[in-house]
Amino acid sequence: MRTKFFVVLFVLGLASSAMLVTAARPAASGTITGKATFTGTPPKMKPIDMSKEPVCAKEHNPPITTQDIESGPGNTLQDVVVYISAGDQGSAPATTTAKYEQKGCQYMPHVLALQANQPQQIFNNDPVAHNIHPLPKANSEWNKSQPPGSPPIDTKWEKPEFIAVKCNIHPWMHGYFAVMGTSHYALTGADGTFTIKDVPPGKYTVTAWQEHMGTQTQEVTVAGGEAKANFTFKALPY
Amino acid sequence: MNSPLMTKRINRVVAGVPALLFLLAVLLPSPKPAKAIPAFARKYGLPCSACHVGWPELNNFGQVFRDNGYQMMNERDSPITRDPSYFPATIRITPQWHRESANNQPVNNSTSESEDHTGTLTTAGFDLSGLDMWFAGTLYKNISFSVLPSSDSFANFHFENAFVRFDNLFNSSWLNVKVGKFELDLPVSEKRLLTLSGDGGFYYIYHFSPFGDQNPFGGIGDNQLGVELVGHNANSYTRYAVSVLSSNDGGVGLLYGVPPSPSEAGNPSGRTYDVYGHFEQGFNTIGNGFMKVGAYGYFGYAPTFFETSGGNPIYGKGNEPFYRAGAEWKWYFNKFLVKGVYLHGYDNAFLANGIPSNSGSLKGTGNQAAIWNGGFIEGQYVISPQWIMIGRWETVHMAQQINTETPGNLGNLNAITYANRWYPFMFSRAGLALQQEVSWVRSNGVTNQGGAYGSLCGDAGLSPTCKINSYSIMLGFDFDF
Amino acid sequence: MALSKKITRSLMLGAFGVALAIPGVAVAQDAGAHAAGLTGNAETGKQYYRRWCVGCHGKEGNGEGENAPYLDPKPRDFTEALFRWRSTPTGTLPTDQDLYDTITRGVVDTLMPTWRPLTPQTRVDLIAYIKTFSPKWQTQKAGTPITIPPEPPQTIDSVLHGRQLFDQMQCWKCHGPEGRGDGPSAITLTDDKGEPIRPYNFHDGTRFRCGETNQDLYKIFMTGLDGTPMPSFADSLKPQDAWDLVHFLRTLQPNVPSTSRTVWLDYVKTHQGQIKPMGADAQGQ
User: Fold this and answer.
1) How far is C285 from chain A (nearest CA, A)?
2) What is the value of pTM for the model shown?
3) Which of C139, C164, C199 is the last residue of a domain?
4) Cβ separation of C13 and B9 shorter than 8 Å?
5) Which of C38, C67, C206 to mutate to test the interface with B (most CBs of B within 10 A)?
6) Which domain holds residue C170?
7) Which chain A residue has the Cα nearest residue C192?
8) Which of A51, A122, C1, C178 sits 20 to 30 Å CA-CA off C107?
9) Which parts of chain B sit beneath pLDDT 50?
10) Smallest Cα–Cα separation from C203: which of C183, C179, C182, C184?
11) Which other chains touch chain C, taking contact as 3+ CB pairs less than 8 Å apart?
12) Per residue in B398-441, pLDDT tens?
């Protein structure tokens, strides 16, 4: 009789402590996933003529095309930046260094998403000189030369902004720094999909930015699991 | 009660009101400027107010531009740096309404009577000024020019100026040479005067001639023919000018003076040369001010008789000297400008009395040299680049008349002028100024044009106690394009 | 009583907010300006701006004055707070003295006159007013002027090293092998407003837009011309290298007599076949 009592007590104790543990742990963080696609006919991407820089032209046979719209099968879009633009309850500061590379007279990646005040390093891995010329409006604009063999340029950006980047010596080079004010962002991959991790439950406004087709915004509610948000851009032939 | 925060808030709210008005001003449609442009504003894209206190009077920036030979010195001055459609031309004229009156004028009511009493003559009505057509600028880098056919209000044209100038010789701003007909480097330019009325539209001391004086020289305000060497430092704080001029008071065809009409030839000139010099120095003062002091002198000759051929005079002889000399002072500070010019005039006794200089001594004849002193003080209140008030007092005082018999103060004058000049717009294209002006001159015994043209007060002969008061009122629409 | 005070207070704060929301001219703070040993005041500078500057730079200081459509190059847009000719590193604001010097000097081969005929106080007041056109002057301080070490002698070694640097840094890509502004990338260059812009032509030029001394030339590539394709080489060149490059650049200017050019011409006479053409190493780097 006594043993039964203790067994019940023990089980109850286990159950309650299990419940306590569950109650003490915060509600499970969710993720926002989705796909970026477009409808309509986008402008044709043109091959880039690098004949003015023979060293780079050699590296691309056939030549690469312009990257204003990087589309894939099923009208998916690569390099779309998806981020929480409102309702964000708090984001973690970045711990790594964002890297940007000039290779084959091309920016890799084409769009670099990084956080405000996150350290950034820009590499010149070409045998020719480049100049890095970001064109911000809210942040301070600067322009630095990077001859071949130079060490990487260390920099960071204070204000969230989409910053176009160019090289004046090689006018076909275009890229972007997507400086985010939150850690809740992601870039779509070659298949057009993205995943934003570690999103606490709540209601959010999520924005998707594509360099040519503008932005799309949605309200997303995260409840601890996977919230879906697909973005469909309207493409025009110009 | 009035916490610092409260006061601050009030200041901020009050500060917001002008911003609101500013917004409204920006949103309300503004008139589109006309496409054609006064020469320099069009060429360089500056508003008129950049070079002019209020056009046509120059400020120091405009003075430097002019001293550089109408150049900004940025390798964009030569006409080849411009679109071929650019043409350096400007016109200016002033339609107006004006009223002129003078008292103590000889009046004759009946055709059978000679002038038997004095009265006040008044005329008023709408009128035109003369027309200026001004072409000026650069022919090439460091070679500038100006041509100004100018007419009186009857459309009789003459060349007010016509010259070519070689600028910055040997790459020095101290050496510039001008050849042709031009305004002397006067302490205050009369051609850029802001007063336009009948009695107030010129500086008396620049033209004054004593009663009865036969010297045909019209004064340093007349444009002269000759060559001028001018130099200045980079910001024109230090300037000098030296001119050598023909002794013909700017008359062409080797005649003396500008004939009143093409059919009336003036007398021939005297184959001599006059010299004019001017030096000024500027320095910064309190009140973000800028002061200039300077001195000038004109030394000239005019003939007292002529070599003739068949009874007609062919050139002047018996040249006798005269001079005009003096000092200047100008002060620009905050929104005020004050300018003062002093002049001392001298005409040789033979010249003044019209006596050939080979006719013997003048001792005991009572004929003597004419000597006088005069000057003006002008104040300007530049309320904004588009609104200027001008006030001026001028006086001339005879020190020695041409003859001992002549009353000592005959011809003395005092003049006071006030003008209000408002520019409704201030662009880089055309210009318009609305002018309201009153002017009063009082002269002793003669009308304010002295010398050979003076007329006596009433019929009492030489009567310096008879004061002639002359008034001008003018409402003018001064525009250029 | 306390409640109505609170309401009044919040109403006034609201009005305050509205007043602040009205575009900046009246409420812009006067950061003042200090140059040439004088202090400038923006309110005073405003009346001078209306007289002298508004025709090109515009009422809002955005380079959209009435004459701007007819000007080439275009007048500076002060609302961006992006200035080319500075003594401070790329990406930083110029000092007040930098702005004062630009106004005083004017800009050669443009329609920006030299404003030296204005009194120094007038020019400093203008700088103070120009700074009110952009909020960046409130949030950022001017950069720290770079240190320019004393210039070493203009020897042939310095010139030759400078020539090597001109090749390695690939300056000739824009400026051309003879510095005539005809390099392969020259015709594609645009400034920040998208307007075509040409690299400096050393062969035809005399002054630079930011001065005429060797120190001015040093500053150009060690601070970069922000707002143009000309980058800063401060991260790539040591000060000694920079002076060698200055000396070489002077040899490209036949219209500017210099010791560097004299020693270079002497060298060319005696070493005819030994000088490698510029850009020859581009493939091999």
Assistant:
1) 6
2) 0.84
3) C139
4) yes
5) C67
6) 156-283
7) A135
8) C178
9) 1-37, 262, 449-453, 459-460, 462
10) C179
11) A, B
12) 999 999 988 888 889 999 999 999 999 988 888 999 999 999 99
